Amino acid sequence: MNTRVTDTPPHPLTALGWNPRVAAAFDSVAHGSEHLLVPGRVSAARRGGSVVRVPGDEVPADHSPAVLKDTRTDPTLAPCTGDWVALRRSGDAWLVEAVLERSGTLVRQGIAKDSYDQVLAANVDRVLICEAADQGPNVGRLERFLSLVWAGGAEPVVAVTKAELAGDRLPEVVELVRSVSPGIEVHVVSAHTGQGLDALAERMAPGSTWVLLGTSGAGKSSLVNAVAGQELMDTGAIRGDKRGRHTTTHRQLLVLPRGAVVLDIPGVRRIDVPGEAEGVDRTFADVTELAEQCRFRDCVHETEPGCAVRAAIDEGELDLSRLERWNRLRRESERNRARGDARLRSEQTRVWKARTKEGRERGRLKRGGR
């Protein structure tokens, strides 16, 4: 007997990046809920609510009491652009019942000692770091961006934008970018002339989620429009000091004609290095590999005998300034990790005091209110 084999139809949210990992996360939440839940992906976030793509529609959704409670405890748990969520109907409204487990995030560090980090985008596969050829590159900023991406679990890709404006400096700019991005894919592109756009568009596979990261004026919006072949984003003029205006003022989710998902976020000028040391170490993989070859485990790479890092500098294989930037970012990472630990301890102390106060009140009531 012949058995007829039919192809399983794709999930309605496949075009937005739905995959087995997300499906398993949703099933885990849905099976444990007393409500009928549907999956969706956050296309824009706002205070107390979100705009969510669901099969065949895009709907505004408020946050459920459970999500609001989690957000008050830790603001980083609030739904953000790119999050996969489980929704339920409440009368005529939609409620975000749960935020599914994230994979690949872009997180900006909190500045104050007691401030929380800010999740800029979630469930990111790759981050396209845009450096304008006519303005740089800014090596220190690029290394910070790379550290941020690696720490969040996404893959960094670099785009040298506005290639037509660099003139004879373009080879020098590209070489400098490659020197601080060892092993990382670098695309030289121009939204004006079309240079490098086909290769970049081919790289942005259907169902993959990308974030464009860079300062205002780096040409992110123009690049997205050029890759898409249509005007998906507004573009703005460059100021007299060559610093761009913020044409993106909020976060949003865009689907390119070829199928890739782009999470559009505002230009970022200040980036603090994450407290996770892995981000810095992967950005400076060439330095860390040398450091592992030093004679002493606690080598600080100054005057110690058998220092492989200093030997590489003496032989011209490693630039001294790169070692100095590595040390500087490692120290900053350690400070941010300590700040995060201090905030966590403060939060734990607050919770402990609140519970102690509740326990005393219950005891007082049991004694008759005395």
From TrEMBL:
The organism's place on the tree of life at top rank: Bacteria
Binding site for Zn(2+): C294, C299, H301, C307
Enzyme Commission number: 3.6.1.-
Cellular localization per UniProt: Cytoplasm
Annotated ranges, domain EngC GTPase: 122-269
Database matches in InterPro entries: P-loop_NTPase, Ribosome_biogen_GTPase_RsgA, RsgA_GTPase_dom
Cofactor binding comment, as recorded: Binds 1 zinc ion per subunit.
Pfam families listed in its UniProt record: RsgA_GTPase
Keyword terms, alphabetized: Cytoplasm, GTP-binding, Hydrolase, Metal-binding, Nucleotide-binding, Ribosome biogenesis, RNA-binding, rRNA-binding, Zinc
Positions contributing to GTP binding: G214, T215, S216, G217, A218, G219, K220, S221, S222
Enzyme class: hydrolase
Cofactor: Zn(2+)
Family matches, as PROSITE patterns: ENGC_GTPASE
CDD domains attached to this UniProt entry: YjeQ_EngC (cd01854)
Record function comment: One of several proteins that assist in the late maturation steps of the functional core of the 30S ribosomal subunit. Helps release RbfA from mature subunits. May play a role in the assembly of ribosomal proteins into the subunit. Circularly permuted GTPase that catalyzes slow GTP hydrolysis, GTPase activity is stimulated by the 30S ribosomal subunit.
Subunit structure: Monomer. Associates with 30S ribosomal subunit, binds 16S rRNA.
Family indicated by similarity: Belongs to the TRAFAC class YlqF/YawG GTPase family. RsgA subfamily.
NCBIfam families the UniProt entry points to: ribosome small subunit-dependent GTPase A
Protein name as it appears in the record: Small ribosomal subunit biogenesis GTPase RsgA
Organism: Nocardiopsis changdeensis
Gene name in the database record: rsgA
